[in-house]
Amino acid sequence: MKPESADKTESFYIAVILYESSSDAPNYQPLYQECFVLLKASSLEKAKEKAVCYGKKEEVSYKNEDGENITWSLKQVIDVNSVLYDDFDSASNGVDLYARHFRNYEAYHSFEPLLSQEKL
Length: 120
Known about the structure:
By secondary structure, the chain is α+β, with helices and mostly antiparallel strands. The chain has a domain at 11-83. Helices cover 21% and strands 34% of the residues. The protein is built from three helices and four strands, in the order ββαββαα. The chain has helices at 44-57, 105-111, 113-116, and strands spanning 11-23, 32-41, 60-63, 69-82. Strands 2-1-4-3 form a four-stranded antiparallel sheet, with helices on one face. The protein is globular and about 50 Å long. Residues 1-5 have low confidence and may be disordered.
């Protein structure tokens, strides 16, 4: 079997990673965090593997200000795709990295706290 070339050109990918918080505190309401992570990989499959590894590496537990245990864990890697444009030299003017489409604005509004200025 021929080993994969070590000098294969890597490209940039965006991973959409979903985390979930949990706690042993009574009446705890889970909080979810969606992260957009920039990865560099030699293929889409390698980028997907890196996204899962990254998500697991970012899992954390701590005590909050009330002494309750809070744990953030990887819920799911939602999407991994190549960046739309990887010309970062022109980034001072802005550059699109990732886009997604949806049909139900009301559903988006109901889960996106920044639209309603909801405090987390």
